[in-house]
Amino acid sequence: MSHDWHELATHSRLRELARLLRETFDVWVGFLDEDGQAVPIGRGEIDHWKPVCEQFKANALESEGDDDATTSCRGTLQDWSERLNRDKGDDAPHELTCHAGLSAWIAPIDDEMGETIGGLYVSGFLPGMDAAARRRAIRQTLDEHELANSLDNDALERLPALGESDRQLAALLVDRMQTLASEVIQRESDPLDDGEPARFEGMIGQSPQMQTLFETIEQVADTNSTVLIEGENGTGKELVARAIHRRSRRVDARFVALNCAAIPAQLIESELFGHKKGAFSGAHRD
CA–CA separation, 174 vs 132, rounded Å? Predict the structure, then answer.
């Protein structure tokens, strides 16, 4: 099944995670389809300018149609895609190198059958331990192609280098994006024409009203706003609340359901916000 990677790149939570990676580590983030086409996430949201890469791109343009992984970005993407296809079934991110000498993580993304159909790339950085050696190698390559003269003196120094703590944090974000992207694809791939009703976080329904509800949950789940859910008894207000929680950035935190109507008015503040010892009769401790 062919997937619309451009649509996936607009997913709100994926865009937020990609923004964190870009702003924190000055890297490129996007999807790589099985044909070696790159789909950046959040294109236009942040200006990324890497003079070193621009020099390599300009050099590659002189050899129009060159798809060699050693000389062009296009060739590098094809090489990364072939690596994903060769290693199907391995969910661990691959650490690879582009033609310019910069590092990248390529994390496989699976469909509903568990087949790798593309990848998430995070690229344009140097490994912290080898950063100095990498910079010297890139400088040598630039000199060989007579590309270094137009660069600022500190252009190579501005290339981001990820130390061990940086790598750990970036790896957590990459893992979360990899899992989330696969989950989104698998949900979208569920067949809806086999007589079974559409399912969404424990709720069932194919009517326009239910589809609107599911879309609204997706929209509000990524916000940091208070959400009021109204409805008669038994209409599934708590189901909606739990769905919002599971789709939110707080998914790893506890979800606490509280029946406020069952709490006496004089105790509601204490129940919600706590109390100090002696605040009222029976308050024997904080």
Answer: 25
Q: Which amino acid is at 166?
A: D
Closest-CA residue to 160 (of 110, 125, 193):
125
User: How crowded is residue 26: how many other Cβ atoms within 10 Å of its Cβ?
Assistant: 16
Closest CA to 255 of 236, 241, 240, 274: 241
pTM, full prediction: 0.62
Nearby residues of 84 by Cβ (< 8 Å), 6 or more positions away: 32, 34, 94, 106, 108, 116, 118, 119
Q: Identify the DSSP state of 108.
A: E
Give the number of other Cβ atoms within 10 Å of residue 285's Cβ.
Answer: 7
User: CA nearest 99: which of 121, 127, 71?
Assistant: 71
Q: How far is it, in rounded angstroms, from Cα 8 to Cα 185? A: 8
User: Mind spelling out the 3-state secondary structure of 124-165?
Assistant: EEEEHHHHHHHHHHHHHHHHHCCCCCCCCCCCCCCCCEECHH
- pLDDT tens for 89-125 read 677 888 999 988 899 999 999 877 778 888 999 999 9
Three-state secondary-structure class, residue 274:
coil
Q: Which of 133, 125, 136 is nearest to 163 (CA)?
A: 125
Q: What is the pLDDT of residues 173-222, one digit of tens each?
A: 999 899 888 888 877 665 444 444 556 777 888 788 888 898 899 889 88
- CB neighbours of 66 closer than 8 A, spacing ≥ 6? 60, 72, 74, 75
The two beta strands, 116-127 and 161-162, are parallel
Helices (H) then strands (E): counts for the chain: 9, 8
Sign for the CA dihedral angle at 222, 4, 54, 83 comes to positive
Q: List beta partners, residue 125.
A: 103
